[in-house]
Specification:
This protein is mostly helical. Helix content is 47%, strand content 2%. The chain contains nine helices and two strands, in the order H-H-H-H-H-H-E-E-H-H-H. Strands 1-2 form a two-stranded antiparallel sheet. Helix 1 runs antiparallel to helix 5 and helix 2 crosses helix 3. The longest helix is centred in the middle third of the chain and has 33 residues.
């Protein structure tokens, strides 16, 4: 089959991984329908993985390797490298990232961007990337420090009856959903994970991220409180059923991929 061009924003490790997966699929005469029938993943999920729209979970890589009698280790190494690259660049300003006006943050004018890198300047790309990364981390650190100072003032000086948003030591409380599109993935502002296991009675930011993303899929997990109760579990199962994934109510790599996918 004739494959479409991979996105230019795809990092080298992810690009090599997708190219290897495409080669294995074509060499063994597999179709998306066959992959859906022979693996736990739907045809639409495989379409996203093979066109670089979403990073395939390790179980998908292992499934394709098993179908084609190929060693999974080299493919998994590429997959882990691609995941590390994504984690390193998640906080960087990206062209094409969509957010509401209240959520958009402008980069400082003296920070170099991809569009300002002209011909003959390719050798400075890595240095510029590190500079941007440093600026982004400084901004995040400053915002966190400011939030901590304001929160301390509110708790000390406001009456208890005000009912301020708070998170307990167990990770349960009130969280906010701040949606930002990152390529073909959706982030909700509480956790960037795409692999941590979240299940019944889990607590913390990962759970809040699940609850926010469920709402993006028009499901109703209840309050975004960081507690994975029966209601959240039921909505996770509903999402899994919609995409023909075993409805076990557990959020792992496969279900994170469903939650973060931008339809």
């Amino acid at each position: 089959m004739r494959w479409r061009e991979l996105p230019e924003t795809l990092d080298p490790d992810a690009r090599r991984l997708v190219q290897e997966l495409r080669r294995l699929k074509d060499h063994n005469g597999l179709t998306l329908h066959m992959l859906q029938a022979k693996t736990p993943f739907s045809g639409s999920s495989w379409e996203r993985y093979l066109n670089g729209k979403a990073l395939p979970p390790t179980t998908a890589v292992e499934a394709l390797a098993g179908l084609t009698n190929t060693a999974a280790s080299p493919l998994l190494e590429l997959r882990y490298a691609a995941q590390r690259s994504r984690a390193e660049t998640e906080c960087l300003p990206r062209k094409g990232v969509e957010a509401s006006p209240s959520q958009q943050v402008s980069a400082p004018s003296d920070v170099p961007t991809a569009s300002s890198t002209g011909p003959g300047k390719g050798q400075r790309h890595e240095q510029e990337r590190r500079e941007i990364h440093g600026v982004a981390l400084s901004l995040v650190g400053g915002a966190l420090l400011l939030s901590a100072v304001v929160a301390g003032w509110l708790i000390a000086d406001r009456p208890a009856s005000v009912g301020l948003p708070a998170v307990s030591a167990t990770g349960v409380g009130r969280y906010h959903c701040t949606y930002v599109r990152h390529g073909e993935l959706m982030l909700a502002g509480n956790s960037p994970t795409d692999a941590d296991i979240v299940a019944l009675n889990s607590t913390g930011p990962d759970v809040a991220e699940v609850q926010c993303l469920l709402r993006r899929h028009h499901l109703t997990p209840g309050d975004v409180d960081g507690y994975f109760g029966k209601r959240t579990e039921a909505q996770v199962k509903k999402l899994q059923q919609q995409d023909h994934v075993s409805p076990d109510g557990i959020v792992g790599e496969r279900t994170w991929s469903l939650l973060r996918h931008v339809a």
